[in-house]
Amino acid sequence: MFKKVVFSFLLIFLFQSCGDDNEYVDVTGKDFPDLTERLYAGGKTTIFSNTSNGYSTPAPNLSGSELSRHLEGDIDFESVFVTAPANINSGLGPIFNNSSCISCHPRDGRAAHPQNIQARSGLLLRTSLPGSGSNGNPIAVNGFGLQIQNQAIFNFQPEAEYTVQYEEIAEKLADGTIFYLRKPIFNVTNPYISFPDNALLSPRIAPPVFGLGLLELISDNDLINSQDINDSNGDGISGRLNYVWNPLTQQTEIGKFGWKANAPNLLIQCAAAYVEDMGITNYVFPQETGHDQSNGNDHLNDDAELSDKILHNAVFYTRTLAVPAPRNIADLDVRKGAKLFADLQCATCHTPKQQTGFSEISALSFQTFYPYTDQLLHDMGEGLADNRPDFLANGREWKTRPLWGIGLTFVVNNHTHFLHDGRARNITEAILWHGGEAENAKQNFKKLSKEDREALLKFINSL
Ligand code: HEC
Ligand code: HEC
Ligand SMILES: [Ca+2]
Ligand SMILES: [Ca+2]
Ligand SMILES: [Ca+2]
């Protein structure tokens, strides 16, 4: 009896000493989610790392032969391509954006928003004309295609140079703190032929490439059932899938990769990266991206430049990188942040849990994992809009980004630039850019006390 009184007295004391203006003080944490089950963020492909190798480690459950294939893919991902003819890694360009996968996805992570927009970087501009083609596809711009290659090999001319200007936008939080966001406005200059006035531009930064084999294996049924196209549950959020053209199967399929879910699978995504980003032809895309342009045809009879084996190894590599486990999951602030993440409506799009179906790669088969994405498109408002449709994704829609591993961004990549063009300089800025279907979530965030805001950030940084 006496003991019990002393104990409650102690509890009251704790409440008062650390919780003055804090709505959510719960020293026991009983109201906060238990994050233990989310520790294995990548199911059995999870690794425990808080180092700069956090994104670039093979899944620990690969078989011996799978691991050796992964390691071959690792070399291919790092290979620097050079001008043809050459004995190895031949065929860069003639027009391109960068010369290796790793140069845009450093340490298998994300590129920084470029300091020098003219230089080779992890940022590229897609382009198209208004409307859509017979396969629902964006319409290529005559002489420029669907992506602007701003680099070229010796004796060739890039399609154009990139330019960027910044607009400053102030966001004031309820507690008076002001954040100054930077909005990049991209354009092109010095085109090799005139660039049409009505051509649309979509800036894209290179995202991290770990854990993607798991995302690729979420079943079509699960994805289709998670849509809420007409917002029938009335929560203001209406995610839907993108459906995109697969040039190999000659069919429309669910879009899964790219910032607008514009690629159906990792094979198409990687094959497109070789041909568009680096100018390396392959069996999926056997022609140089600029073959019908005066600046983009090298007249060499060497297509396809890439062996099928290298393409498949690179795909296998992006399927089988380990997912880093969250850190500090027992920390009370982190758990409080997880509760806020759900209460604020963040978790409605950044769905914590997903599962894979069967895969020939046994390491990926039937895994429960925690990517924090619903893989659906959402209207994110005018501020983030690129106004360029990409299959079903309209100019305001983007695919929910996975948040797993996000807390290691600085350790791995030495910056904390987020969103599709790297405009946000930290996680708070990324949240303040949310609008459209995420407007409520953002307003909820802006109302938080400093302490609650910090708990939310601590949770996101624990991922
Ligand atoms: C010029 C920079 C650049 C190069 C070079 C590059 N990428 Fe990318 N990568 C990007 C960008 C930008 C995106 C986002 C594309 C989009 O939204 O459509 C991306 C997306 C991806 C994705 C999808 C990630 C996701 O979460 O949706 C994969 C996988 C990928 N790249 C693999 C590769 C491979 C493999 C190579 C080498 C063959 C490569 N990339 C070369 C810039 C690059
Ligand atoms: C309506 C769906 C939706 C809601 C609600 C939502 N997000 Fe997002 N989130 C997205 C989409 C889509 C993106 C990518 C937007 C872009 O890059 O233009 C994103 C991007 C992010 C990013 C940057 C990720 C990266 O890899 O660059 C962070 C961090 C983030 N969200 C956190 C939050 C938090 C915290 C909340 C709650 C306050 C929240 N989100 C609510 C859909 C949503
Ligand atoms: Ca080439
Ligand atoms: Ca082009
Ligand atoms: Ca809804």
Automatic annotation (TrEMBL):
One Pfam assignment: DHOR
Keywords of this entry: Heme, Iron, Metal-binding, Signal
Signal peptide annotation: 1-19
SUPFAM superfamilies in UniProt: Cytochrome c
Sequence ranges assigned to domain Cytochrome c in this UniProt record: 332-463
Entry-linked InterPro entries: Cyt_c-like_dom, Cyt_c-like_dom_sf, Cytochrome_c_Peroxidase/MauG, DHOR
Listed GO MF terms: cytochrome-c peroxidase activity; electron transfer activity; heme binding; metal ion binding
Protein's name in the database: C-type cytochrome
Organism for this UniProt entry: Paenimyroides baculatum
Lineage, uppermost ranks: Bacteria, Pseudomonadati, Bacteroidota, Flavobacteriia, Flavobacteriales
